[in-house]
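One record is given unchanged without comment:
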Amino acid sequence: MNLNAIVNEVLTELFKGYIEHGGTPIFDVTEIIKKHGENPHEIGKYLVDSGVVKNQQFRPTGFGASISMRGIESIKPDYLEDNLNTIISTLGETGTPSIMEILEFEPKDYQLAFDMAKYLEGKGLIEAHFRHNDVLIKLSLTGREYYENNNAYFFS
């Protein structure tokens, strides 16, 4: 068994669904796991224990879940890094407080904005206020320092 290959394939499929469907659905990954000849419940438990999935559903015939930010970090770190840099630089330059506006998300993508705000809050870079259809943010002191260190050319 090549566990890394199974995990990467599952996470890639979950990430694709996460982006296409605004971060909300749970996807069944039973077939991906079974085609590798493995037990969906055992691989599902491994994914949960590793923290790379959330909203797990162990069904009698399989396993479904959503990708977590840790899962995204493991297979698509550029997605997080690009969004982090866009948000921090836009906040620093223009003060635009809406993640939805900064990342040009549609209302269906609210969960993507919510997850990104929680990720950035966890890093101590922003303070977030969650609204019904938007996430309003401002730079924390750490976020301001990050902005100034990574955008020094704006201050010279």
Notes: The longest strand covers residues 53-59. Residues 76-155 form a domain with the Arc Repressor Mutant, subunit A fold (CATH 1.10.10.10). The two ends are 55 Å apart (CA to CA). Helices lie at 3-20, 30-35, 40-50, 69-75, 77-94, 99-102, 110-122, 141-150.
